[in-house]
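Backbones bend. We report:
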Amino acid sequence: MVKKTINEEKRLLFTIRGLVILYISSLLVWGITAFPLEIELKVLCCLLGISPDVAPETYSGLMQWLATVQAGVVNTNLNYPFIAYGTDWLAFSHLVIAVAFVGLYVKPVRNKWIIYFGMIACAGVIPLALICGAIREIPFYWRLIDCSFGVFGFIPLYLIHHYVKKLEIVYMVCR
C-alpha cells in the first residue's frame, strides 16, 4: 500500500510539474512576444502578402484588420513611441506571472492558491475582451480570439487543480 502510494505521488507530481512547465513556458512566450510587436506584424503581414504601401481599406476581413493594426503600430511607434511602453508593461506582467507559477511547481499542494489566481485571471479575460474590445472598436471575431486565451489558459489550470486535489488525498493517506 505504501509503495503504491509513493508511486502515485511521483506520478501526480510528474504530471502536475509537466503541466506547470507548459503553463510557465506559455506565459514566457506570450510575454516575450509582446515586446517586438512592430517586427512581428511586419513579418506576419509580409507572409500574408499584406503590403504596408497599400491602404488597409483595399483588403477585407482579417487582412484588412491586420493591415490596419500594422499601420497603427508603425505610425504610433514613429510619432508616439512612448505608447509602446504600455505593451512593455504587458510583456513584463506575463513574465512576472510566470515566475509566480514556480511556487506551484515546487510545492503544488501548499501553493494551490496560485491555480485559483490563474483561473480567476483567465475568467477575467473574457469580460475584458468583450467590454473593452467593444469600446476600442476591436472586431468581434478578434475579441473572440482574445477570449480564447482565457478559455485555453483555464484548461491546463483546471487539469492541474484536478491533479493537485488527488495529490492532496495521497498526502492525507500517507499521514
Residues 2-174 form one domain.
